[in-house]
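Lecture notes, part 5. Sequence design as translation. It can be helpful to think of inverse folding as translation between two languages: the language of shapes and the language of residues. The source text, in structure tokens, appears below.
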């Protein structure tokens, strides 16, 4: 066997004339597309082109995964469209040489192939993947404000059809091997590496002169090209549907649609050049810079443990206790059991605890219907959850999470009863969303082992957990809590103790500003649309209904009591009167009751509608504010409060602040998070606009002192 080493691409030719190109970048745990890989790949392709004795080519990987995608560092650093265009064209030229080299080329996918990795595979004539449940396949570039720039928008629609390909790119879906096979992206599945390589050689032997579908003179688009009547109706509504979801905040969405539509009326090579132009447009856009900076670099640093105390050995929770089997407690039990943890789910009665377990059963049934789980898998997970009303069952727990009602007395009582069953090393955590952890820890006999773990609802879907350090929380307790959050597949941010912590405190400003606008006479529909136009997932009035007006009233009353107990004066907010009126006078406490700012029809499939009575209870102002003014108020209220949290040390890192805002309450992802919004807006300009809003609407818009200083210094938030 002929072989050459060392290189990021190993070239091995066997006695049958089959060349295996093994992608294996030295010094890296994963292959990425950059010059260090593309240059030796180009050299290998040149050797194939020049050697007539080569009968076929297998492209595989020496890493655990096949190829993760482009070198994001390089893409992020690009500021010139010409540079981004050249990058895309260079990679595509490489793939064109590979697929037109005159030999059968097989992609042997031993693991994950995303983005440029899948585009490389699509540039091969045949794709065989190991049926590994952990492997993922897809074109997720849109999640970073980009689009597939290596021919993905041209090859995928020509391979599986326009209507099948568009959702994969517009939503950035990541498929398992079997799903990719079902979609027609992967041609064959293999049981292991040996099986995969054997199948690759067999296919090469049986197909000595393959041609890519788009290079076949008889090629016809699966389902029709862009001019086909079969796609006419789809093209008539697709842009509107996409814009209805994105509100124009994501250029990559429109660019992907344009790439596919325009590519569907021209030849393949022209379509590839069109793609490169739209790719360049995305690369230099502020949206991609915001999203890559936060959702790639900052998220990566969090997941690597930047907020975890150093020098403490990593650990895993073996047995977890959850106090309270309501929706939140049941959700925590579910995700923990999913992660393989034994769970004791405790409530005031066994019936209540059983209902909490049934919640998990319902979620698992949904997973079975979607083909994501087997009945056996459901039974295994449910077997890990033990419902109980006996505190003695908490014995042996490494961690207990309290998820009972937001009442200090109730929380104190369950803390004392649970701790009586725990060892000295066990951790006790509160899932409170607003009550300061240091105060709650006063009920604990071991405050150094007491911490806050603030989950978000619904727990099975929300990716974030906010870890709150009390004044006496030890570094060891923080490290173990951090490890647990990662063990259940969530992203942890770490904050210091304060009323509302970080996420609840800043999230509240969005909702409260929406209520203040309603009180002033802004049209409720305009308020809701302003939130969506700003990039928030839900309008502030709908979100307040979800949270529950009655809960907000309870928190408001508790806050007033706490201020009074501390000898302080509660300044209040214009929204307070709206909450009190909706609950006390109008008896409209929120979605759970079927009535809040919206009406919620009881009939199945009924659409919520803004309550018609709002017009009478909150009369419209004669002069309505401009939509841009509404958007600014909703966004500045959040960003300024986030800056205050950073200034006060509630949140210690820019990464935690940005990721916490996006994952915690859905702060406009295209802005890259609450602090990155200020960066992108310009700190000095943000301070100026804040002062304008302060003058018109009150002290809550007064710019954080830190921002005023930063504006003078010409500095910005650096992750």
């Amino acid at each position: 066997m002929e072989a050459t080493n060392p290189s990021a691409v190993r070239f091995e030719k066997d006695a049958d004339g089959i060349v295996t190109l093994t992608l294996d970048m030295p010094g890296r745990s994963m292959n990425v597309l950059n010059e260090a890989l593309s240059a030796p790949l180009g050299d290998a392709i040149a050797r194939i082109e020049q050697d007539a004795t080569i009968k076929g080519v297998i492209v595989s990987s020496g890493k655990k995964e096949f190829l993760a995608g482009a070198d994001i560092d390089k893409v992020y650093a690009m500021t010139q469209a010409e540079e981004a265009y050249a990058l895309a064209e260079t990679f595509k030229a490489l793939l064109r040489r590979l697929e037109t080299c005159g030999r059968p080329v097989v992609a042997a996918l031993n693991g994950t192939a995303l983005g440029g990795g899948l585009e490389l595979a699509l540039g091969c004539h045949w794709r065989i993947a190991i049926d590994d449940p952990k492997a993922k396949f897809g074109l997720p570039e849109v999640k970073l404000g980009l689009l597939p720039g290596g021919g993905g928008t041209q090859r995928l629609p020509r391979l599986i059809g326009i209507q099948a390909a568009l959702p994969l790119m517009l939503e950035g879906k990541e498929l398992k091997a079997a799903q990719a096979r079902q979609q027609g992206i992967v041609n064959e599945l293999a049981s292991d590496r040996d099986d995969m390589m054997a199948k690759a050689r067999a296919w090469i032997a049986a197909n000595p002169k393959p041609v890519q579908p788009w290079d076949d003179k008889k090629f016809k688009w699966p389902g029709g090209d862009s001019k086909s009547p079969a796609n006419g109706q789809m093209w008539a509504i697709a842009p509107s549907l996409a814009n209805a979801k994105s509100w124009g905040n994501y250029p990559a969405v429109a660019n992907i649609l344009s790439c596919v539509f325009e590519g569907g009326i021209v030849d393949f090579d022209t379509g590839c050049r069109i793609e490169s132009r739209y790719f360049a447009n995305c690369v230099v856009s502020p949206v991609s810079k915001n999203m890559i900076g936060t959702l790639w670099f900052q998220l990566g640093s969090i997941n690597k443990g930047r907020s975890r105390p150093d020098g403490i050995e990593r650990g895993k929770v073996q047995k977890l206790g959850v106090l309270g089997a309501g929706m939140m407690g049941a959700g925590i039990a579910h995700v923990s059991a999913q992660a393989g943890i034994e769970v004791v789910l405790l409530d005031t009665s066994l019936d209540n605890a059983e209902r909490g377990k049934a919640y998990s059963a319902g979620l698992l049934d949904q997973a079975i219907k979607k083909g994501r789980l087997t009945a056996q898998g459901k039974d295994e997970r449910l077997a890990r959850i033990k419902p109980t009303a006996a505190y003695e069952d908490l014995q042996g727990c490494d961690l207990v999470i309290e998820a009972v009602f937001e009442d200090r007395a109730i929380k104190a009582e369950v803390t004392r009863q649970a701790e009586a069953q725990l060892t000295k090393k066990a951790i006790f955590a509160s899932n409170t969303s607003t009550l300061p952890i240091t105060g709650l820890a006063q009920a604990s006999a071991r405050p150094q082992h007491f911490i806050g773990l603030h989950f978000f609802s619904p727990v099975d879907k929300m990716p974030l957990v906010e870890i709150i350090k009390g004044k006496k929380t030890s570094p060891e307790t923080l490290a173990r809590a951090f490890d647990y959050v990662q063990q259940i597949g969530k992203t942890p941010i770490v904050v210091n103790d304060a009323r509302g912590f970080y996420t609840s405190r800043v999230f509240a400003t969005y909702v409260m500003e929406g209520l203040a606008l309603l009180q002033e006479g802004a049209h409720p529909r305009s308020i809701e649309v302003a939130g969506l136009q700003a990039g928030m997932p839900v309008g502030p009035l709908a979100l307040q209904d979800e949270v529950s007006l009655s809960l907000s009233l309870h928190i408001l009353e508790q806050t007033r009591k706490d201020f009074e107990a501390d000898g302080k004066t509660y300044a209040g907010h214009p929204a307070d009167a709206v909450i009190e009126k909706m609950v006390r006078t109008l008896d409209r406490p929120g979605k759970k009751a079927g009535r809040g700012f919206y009406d919620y029809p009881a009939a199945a499939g009924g659409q919520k509608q803004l309550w018609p009575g709002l017009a009478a209870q909150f009369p419209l102002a004669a002069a309505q504010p401009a939509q841009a003014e509404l958007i600014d108020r909703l966004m500045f209220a959040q960003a300024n409060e986030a800056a205050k949290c950073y200034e006060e040390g509630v949140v210690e890192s820019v990464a935690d602040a940005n990721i916490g805002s996006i994952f915690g309450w859905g702060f406009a992802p295209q802005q890259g998070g609450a602090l990155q919004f200020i960066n992108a807006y310009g700190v000095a300009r943000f301070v100026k606009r804040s002062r304008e809003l302060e003058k018109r609407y009150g002290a809550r818009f007064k710019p954080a002192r830190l921002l005023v200083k930063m504006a003078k210094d010409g500095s910005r938030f650096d992750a």
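The translated text above is only one of many valid answers, since several sequences can fold into similar shapes. The longest helix spans residues 627-648.
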